[in-house]
Every structure is written in structure tokens, then in C-alpha cells.
Give the backbone structure.
Amino acid sequence: MAVRAAPIDRLRDDVRLLGELVGGVLREQGGAPLFAAVEHVRTSAIDLRISERSDQPLLGWAEAQPTRRLLQLVRAFSVYFHLINLAEQQHRVRTLRERQRVSREPLHESIAAAIDELRGQGVSVADMQATMRQVQVHPVLTAHPSEARRRSLLHHLQAAARAIEQLDDERLPPAERSAVLDALRVRTTLIWQTAEARVERPSVLDEVQSVLYVLAGTVYDVLPLVYRAVQRAGLPADSNLLRFGSWVGGDRDGNPAVTPDVTRAAARLARAAVLRRYRDDVQLLGRDLSISGRLTGCERALLNSIERDREELAVQAVPQWSDQPYRRKFGLIGERLRRTDAGGPGGYAGIEHLLSDLDLIAASLEVHGGQRIARGALLDLRRRVETFGFYLAELEIRQHAQRHAEAVAELLALAGVPGFLAMDEPARQQAIERCLESDGPFGFPPEALSAESRDVIDTFHAVADVQRLNGLRAAQTCVVSMSRAPSDAFAVLLLAREAGLVDGTSSRIDVVPLFETIGELRECGYVLSQMLASPAYRAAVRARGDRQQVMVGYSDSNKDGGYLAATWATYRAQQDLAEAATAAGVELVVFHGRGGAVGRGGGPMGRAIMARPSTAASPIFKLTEQGEVIFARYGNLAIAERHLEQVVHALLRSCLSAGPAQPGGEWVATMERLAERSREAYESLVKRSPEFMAFFQQATPFMELATLNLASRPVSRAGKEAAPELDDLRAIPWVFSWTQARANLPGWFGLGSALEHEIEAGGLERLQRMYAEWPFFASAIDNAQLSLGTADPPTVRRYASLAEPRLLPVFASIMAEYERTVSAVLHVTCQGELLERSPVLARSIKLRNPYDDALHVAQLALLRRFRSLPSDAPEDDRQQLLDAIHHSINGIAAGLQTTG
């Protein structure tokens, strides 16, 4: 009997196999000189990690290499990391399956595990069932530019992942295993020969296609798996359990490429994508349900519907299906779906008619011995239709508050109310409220307005068009970025009224203020209470079911005040918002604007849910899924199912667990001091040091990253790609640049100063108790520990050498704070070294570091060469270097498995 290898040994074997495979492809594609260069860099980098030798020989060797060779080195290590990432992903799936196979206990962080834990705390089954009916997981996919990989590359990686999964099958005979390895070599060659850096910046519709690739692929497939996991656990699977949204094609904040027509086109593409999947499912069901009516019987209602459909659609009956009513009905459903897609007569007017047809089939099967059949693939399709409708994912709109205010100012001026932008806040509110209480829209002709205001108003007409095309749920959310006052929300109602979305006491749109900076987060509770005190606005909320969404931004608050101040501000904001909503008798839904990196609100999802304040522990969890996080969480079916189940697990526990009580006044006061000292340390360097921005631009690849064609949106809100101010700089390239240089500054800076001061004042024991007993504080410290643990001082020092000598005091300040933070975190967590309690992650970082070093060394050489080019250098030389730098950015992102 064969003995199974230990899981870690199997991963090591996979890594070794893939390394050899990549080496073979490199010899084949680049010859012996390329392979020798790769081996030289690899072995030299490993030696540097285990010895005290100087890195100058390796850096000097890299700077002596021609640009083409450096590009090849970057590509070689990038291909290696892409495959190793897939191997680790498959290892995660393998480990999950192994645990399920050998353990009688529910899988950790599964829905079944949540039930066991809650039952152990004395929570009744009835309470669990009642809460489960309210639970909703609502991911919103965005096109934020933190996915460095092209869709072509993602396609090759998914094919390679399937091959790696096949290799896991120990039953494969040698010939078949050899064939799989050959297929993997072909795919590796394709990855090697596919440029990772785009020549052109992608269009918005390119981004739409990329997100549809995930939504109509893995997300569509995973949905019934999550419902079945809920059912297996003995809980009700409500049709609202999963909801998906998208900003891609609707997020126009700072992106002039997102026009109303683009929004309409994005909705049409999503409609076509989901209808294709429905037609495929219907075809498969029709093929499977070959049930004979004369053998099993069939409900008269179903037979009557078949005759009505044939008459209405004027289609010929298929003679050989005369005794197969279910196959006949599915054939007619498929024809209606085809006509729905084509927009012709006979298509479904809405999903309720499609659901009615599926229910007719299910009812007949239930009565005539087909219960198990009805509750299989047919039920899966029904759940998909309930969730995805004809729109796949709700297309949400986002726009900057100032753009709305300017459009309102024009409308009011034409109506005889000038000077809106010069009014104070109470006057703005009164001006809009008076208009909302009037009879209807202004209805000014488009030519009376500026092009900018026409665009803003036409956006709401586009929302109305999408609702008419795909149903009300297809587009019903308007996120208002940089919200600072109630009038920012009122303005949306006034503008939406121009498109017929708001009319008196009715509203077909949710207004979602987004609070982003530290100041906005501190004031958001008051702003919400003022919004809900307005009769006109309150009527609109009542029309939306007395539910108010508020979005909390993690990225810009971090960039504004630093890691700990932003983390605390978002926590307090949720408390303040919950109090305001409760006082107004409104259900609050907090929309979490989380990114992938810790500096943008990232970190383990389950811990983030458990760390919410108890007053804001809603069973509805809405969040953004951004950039590379989308592929990491939804690129693999098993991992997507695991991710969503972990979120449901955490939601159940956070809503029903006894958990720790609200933190006492002493702990809150401590957090206030920590947040303030952290913010002061952060702002002292980042905002008040005149040399800081110059150091940032010279000691990171930010300037070159700004030219990387990652996304349709520019790197700064003002559209300035060269030397923008901190306030204009978008949070993603800010974090991305620090990640590339291995500093991870947005994920920890300022924390050390705050903790050190508290410890010196005799507060260590209190901090340790807070870490042990308060989920919020533990999550904040552990997420910072993750940033610190993946940061790498030797690499940061190498990047600092790119900066002018006069700027090196900035580097010294950064490293001094790093040392302070590491020391303080270790004292608070009672550890001897970072990530001591996460040995698998610590080991992975250690093993990857030398290979990451190879990419950093190549990037540093390329950056020096590019930045020293004379102004009259040939454009071809400039573009060749930029292309190599762009590939190095993608390669480092693959090695670190994160961007921004």
C-alpha cells in the first residue's frame, strides 16, 4: 500500500518539479547563457541571505548586463513565481480536502464549524436559523489598478492550474502523467512568450470583460456550492445569501473614460454573459432530463405551458421528444433565452417569468418521483437566476461629490437660485430640499447645460436605461466619494429626479455616502444623523425599505493619517454610524472599501468581521474586492467556495456569539492616545517633511509605475502622473510603490512611536491584555505584524540608494520607526520574532526572499539605467528600458503575491 507523502513534502516536491520544468523551458527558449545567468543570480541571492557578504558584487554584475538580458532574467523569475503560486494554491486545496477526509470534526472556519461553536455557547437552532435568513455576503468587484496581470496571462495561468491539479491525481498512469507534464511545458512556454506588460492602457470595456470573465466563470459556478454547504449544515439557504456587484463601467470618480454610454455598454455585456451561462445550463438540463411522461406522469400545468409556449413562439415540435415533457420544456426555455439575448419578440420580459417556468418543472418533478432531480442541478439554476437575474452583478455608480455639486449649481442657477457653491452647508441643504419638495424635475434642455453637467445627469439616465433593460436590481446604487456633508447626498436625489429615478416619495436608487479621510470618518455619524433628519431625504430612505448604506474608505484614510489612526477611525465611524441609524429607526449597512494590502484595509477577512464593533455587527457584509484579490479569491473554484464559506462562518459568529463586551473606557482612552500619537508620527514625516515626497519618488518605482498600463484610470485624481502631491495621489499606487520596494510603510508607520510611548508610560500590561481580549486591537496589531513581516530592510536599503544623498535622513527615519514598531509589537504579542505564531507564512517568506531578491536586483539596475538616460537618448532605448521595468514590476508583484 502506497504511503501518502506529508503535505509539506508534497508541496516541496511540486516546487522542485516546477522549478526543473521552468529551467528546461528557459534552456530551450534562451539557451545555455540565459540559464547560466539565472542560476548565477539565484545562487548569489541565496548566498547573500545566509552569509554576511556584501551585495555589491551582485548589484554590479546586474548593472553590467545588457537590458535585454535583464528583461530575460525578470521574465524567468516571473514565470517561476507564477507557477509556484499555482502550486501553493493547489497545496491549499489539497490540504483542505485532506482535513475533510481524515477528520470527523467540521472543517475550521466552515459553516458547520460555526454551528458547533454557537451550539457550544448555548445558542438555539431557532436563533441560528433566524440569523441565517438575514445573512448576506455582498462582494463588489472593482477595476482598481492593482491587478498587474493581463487577462491573456490569467487565461494561461488557469490552464496551468488545471494541469497542476491533474498531477495531484496519484491514479494517473505514467503515460497520462507524461502527457500532463507536456501540456504544462506548453503552457509554461506560452507564459514565457506572452508579454506581461501591456503596450496600451486598457479601455474600460477591456476591464469590464476581465471582471465578467470571473463573474460569469468561477463566481457563477461557486454560488450553488455555498448554498449546499449551508444546507448540509442544517440551516436555511435564503435567496439573498449572496449578492454580487461591480464598479467596472460605473466608477467614474477621477476616470473620464467612464461615460454614460460605457455604463450602458457594460450592462449589455453583463446581460449577454449571464444569458449565455443560463442557455448552457438549460441545454445540459434538457439533455439530462430525458424522463418519459408515460412512465412517470407529468403535471397538467406543465403540459399546458408547453403548448402555450409552442403557440407563442411558433416553433416546431421535436417528434422524438413527444414523450419527454421536461426536455420539451427546456428546449422552449432555451429558445426564449436566445430571444431574450437577441432582444426579439418571445424573450423573457423579466426573471420572474423564467423563475415561473423553472418552478413549473420543479413542481412536476416533486409530485412524480423526481424530488432528488428537482433539488439538484435544477435548483442550482434557480438559485443562480434569483442571484444573477439578467444583469449578473449590480452595476454600481460612483462619482465625486464635487461633480454632483457643480451640476446642481447649474440646475439651480437656471431655476433662479444662483450661488449654490458659495452657500454654507445649511443654505445648500435648504436649497435642495425646497426643490425636492416641488412637483418634479427641472427638465431643462441639454443644450442649456455645460458638457460636464450633461455628463453627470446623463449618468442617471444611464442608470434608468439599465434598470429598464435588466431590472431594478441591475443598477440602483450611487456611491458619493469624498462625502463631507448632508447636501452631498441630497444632491444625488435632485440629479436622479431628472432621470425619473426619484419622484415624490418613491426612489429607485440608494444614495451611499463614502467617508474616506480621517476628518470625514470622525464626522460621519453626525452627517448621517443630519441626513436622516431631513424629511425629503428620509422619505427616499423609507422608499428604499428604511435601509441606509454608508461606505467607509480604508485606503484614503490610511494615506491621510497613517495605519493605526485610520484603523481606529474606521472602527469609531462604524459605532457612530450605527448610533445615528438606530436613533432614526433605520437599518444600517456598512459598505467596507477594503483593498488587498494591509495599508488599504486588507488582511484576513474573518478576523476583520469579528473585529467589528458589536453595535455595527450587521448580518449583511458588503465589501469591495479589488485588483489581484479578485483572482486570488475567485480564480480557483475550491478556494472561492472556501473564501465565501469563511465569510458566512464569521458573520454567523459575530452576530450570535457572546464574544467580548464593549471595550471599557480605559481601553478606549488608550486607543485614542495611540491613534493620535501614531497620526502625529506619520504626519510629521509624510506631510511635514519637505524631503519626503522626493524620497518616495526616487526610492520607489512610483514614477515608472505611473506609466505602467495597469488600468483605464490615472494614478492621481487630478490626472497628474508626474510628481503629484500626496493629496492628489491615489491610495493604490501609493501602497503599490512601497510594496515594490519592500518597505510596506502604509501598513505600519507610526504604530511603533505610539506603542513605545505607551509602554514607556507603564502601559505594557494593559496593551497585552487588550491584545489578548479585544478582537479589534488584536486584528490591528496582527495585520501590522503581517506588513512588518513581509517588509525587508536590506531590500529597502538598496532602493534608498536610488535617492539623492540629501534625502537619506528620510530613509533613516523610516528604518528607525521600523525597528521601534517591530520591538513594540513583539512586546505586546509576547513573541520572540515576527510571525512566530504563523510558521507556515514565515517559512514561505523566507523561502521566497532570495528569488524576490533576484527580481529586485534586476529592477534596481534597470531603474538606475533608465533614470540616467540623457534627455536626447533614442526613444527606442527609453521604451526598451521602460518595458523591462514594467515587467519587473509585474514579476515582483507575482513574487510577493500582492501589489497595492
